[in-house]
Write a structure and sequence with these properties.
Elements: H1 3-20, H2 24-42, H3 47-57, H4 63-86, H5 92-98, E1 99-101, H6 104-110, E2 116-120, E3 139-144, H7 150-161, E4 168-169, H8 173-182, E5 189-194, E6 207-210, E7 213-216, H9 220-228, E8 232-241, E9 244-253, H10 263-278
Parallel strand pairs: 1-9, 2-5, 2-8, 3-4, 3-5
Antiparallel strand pairs: 6-7, 8-9
């Protein structure tokens, strides 16, 4: 990094650590409420995008019901901001309390010596997912898209690697998997892919019916699974209370079953929609998730 970037990163990391040392009652009540008010009432951060997404996804909801989800989303978004700051200084013990992986032991015993993937989402507090590195014998790797600001990109890599997780940039993923699978001495991989993001239009290979509208999804998870025979699991998340979550894994592909194109993605999409409908305010509604229109000659699963 250049000097200016290093300085920006140092100031950012230092500020987040200082704030993270404040007591939880301040972080998750006072600071969270201030951030909620600033994002929702003052900055009106992407309110138009959120309302359009909610209205199209839940046409059966009343305006009052949509506003309830909307307010819940902005409160959750403020909490994610606090979590992201707190990750710079949070202890191993506290992170293990914040995100409990219900069937982690079963997963480790079942998949010992075998690489596997987890389909994740921008749901709940996705930074806490990096705590899986505390309970796994695998090399746990979170796949990420680098952000434009290099100081913020360095910060995210730092907080995601504090507990044993090895971040892998999306453009380096295939190379990393090939290298790992070819080395019999290497620890096998557990790959976490947040697969609910929108692909660039020229990379779209799958359209699925999701939340009442045609929606594009990445297919990289499916391609890796079929090429390397990796089991794929969907990670369910349940919010217990503020800053407390439970997560568990459900198999959607065993690594051996002969499946057609789009089947694994389709299974992921269906479970994701079911989870979102249970607690819609926990999903990231401020993304421009439906900015691409499905071509007339495309097939919607």
């Amino acid at each position: 990094m250049k000097f200016g970037t290093r300085l920006q990163y140092g100031l950012l990391l230092g500020a987040c650590k200082v704030v993270g040392w404040l007591p939880d009652w301040f972080l998750y009540h006072c600071l969270l409420d201030v951030l909620y008010f600033a994002l929702y009432r003052v900055a009106r951060y992407r309110v138009g995008v959120v309302r359009t997404n909610l209205r199209n996804s839940f046409p059966e909801q009343t305006e009052a019901g949509l506003r309830t989800i909307e307010r819940g989303f902005y409160r959750q978004l403020a909490e994610v901001f606090v979590d992201t700051i707190d990750m710079a200084s949070i202890s191993r013990r506290k992170l293990a309390q914040r995100m409990v992986f219900v069937n982690a032991r079963e997963m480790e015993e079942r998949l010992h010596g075998q690489s596997w993937m987890a389909g994740l989402a921008h749901y709940g507090s996705w930074e806490y997912i990096n705590g899986y590195g505390l309970v796994s014998d695998h090399q746990v790797s979170g796949i990420y898209h680098p952000v434009h600001n290099k100081a913020f990109n360095a910060y995210f890599k730092y907080i995601r690697s504090r507990f044993g997780t090895v971040p892998i940039a999306m453009h380096e993923l295939l190379r990393a998997v090939v290298r790992n699978e070819a080395d019999p001495r290497a620890r096998r991989l557990t790959l976490g892919l947040i697969a609910d993001q929108i692909p660039p239009f020229n990379e779209i290979q799958y359209w699925g019916w999701f939340l009442n509208q045609p929606t594009a999804f990445y297919t990289g998870m499916e391609k890796l699974a079929l090429r390397f025979g990796m089991p794929v699991f969907f990670m369910h998340v349940r919010k217990v209370r503020r800053a407390r979550y439970e997560a568990w894994f459900e198999e959607i592909y065993d690594g051996k079953e002969p499946v057609g194109e789009g089947v694994i993605v389709d299974r992921y999409v269906k479970r994701l929609e079911k989870m979102i409908r249970e607690r819609p305010e926990l999903w990231m509604w401020s993304h421009r998730r439906w900015k691409h229109n499905m071509p007339e000659d495309a097939v919607c699963h």
